[in-house]
Amino acid sequence: SQTIHQWPATLVQPVGSPLSLECTVEGTSNPNLYWYRQAAGRGLQLLFYSVGIGQISSEVPQNLSASRPQDRQFILSSKKLLLSDSGFYLCAWSGPRAGTYEQYFGPGTRLTVT
Amino acid sequence: GDSVTQMEGPVTLSEEAFLTINCTYTATGYPSLFWYVQYPGEGLQLLLKATKADDKGSNKGFEATYRKETTSFHLEKGSVQVSDSAVYFCALSENRGSTLGRLYFGRGTQLTVWP
Description:
- The complex is a heterodimer of chains A (about 110) and B (about 120).
- Chain A has strands at about 5, 10-15, 20-25, 30-40, 45-50, 55-60, 65-70, 75-80, 85-95, 105, 110-114.
- With about 110 residues, chain A is mainly beta.
- In chain A, the strands form two sheets. In chain A, strands 2, 4, 5, 6, 9, 10 and 11 form a seven-stranded mixed β-sheet that branches. A four-stranded antiparallel β-sheet of chain A has the order 1-3-8-7, with no helix packed on it.
- In chain A, a hairpin with a 5-residue loop joins strand 4 and strand 5.
- The model of chain A has no long low-confidence stretch (mean pLDDT about 90).
- Chain B has strands at about 5, 10-15, 20, 25, 30-40, 45-50, 55-60, 60-65, 75, 85-95, 105, 110-115.
- In chain B, strands 2, 5, 6, 10, 11 and 12 form a six-stranded mixed β-sheet that branches.
- In chain B, strand 7 and strand 8 form a beta hairpin.
- Chain B is mostly beta strands.
- Chain B is built from no helices and twelve strands.
């Protein structure tokens, strides 16, 4: 069966510090990968998605970047955090076959920028 | 473009009450429809799905029917429990033959069930 991991689970960082959040998927090959942010109030904002190694698409231009160095690894980064980067970050994967579009989410990382 | 509108919460019910959370969608093609649930402090879990018109998705006592004529996918449960307290998200995916299925989410509906 497939599993998705995220770490760290929680993070408190000062403004201006760098960020690296990691997501890994087990039990599947060539997944589509996604980063979402959920700010206070519950709504989900798609930040980045990837259909393969080194292939990153950005949905919202902002202070963040993403990378996919390996097939089942997806990293979210920032060089300098802003207060507005606080939120709950969710990684998700979906199958590579056309027609299987449901996404499966990781447990999330709670980021607080102080 | 594709979008999902779901009823605003919060919804507060007593245990064993009937639940309906409304969801309507706008799509240019024939989307797949989903309900996700998020418990406090956790990620989203897929609750149920339907991939074509008149399909009924069901899981854990929850049901939703894909109604193309009303572009709706309302979530229902006949008797809620305290453990159903969570945020519920309706979502659709654009099925355009590609390998990437982008999901469009509603804003979520907070459900609180009291004993």
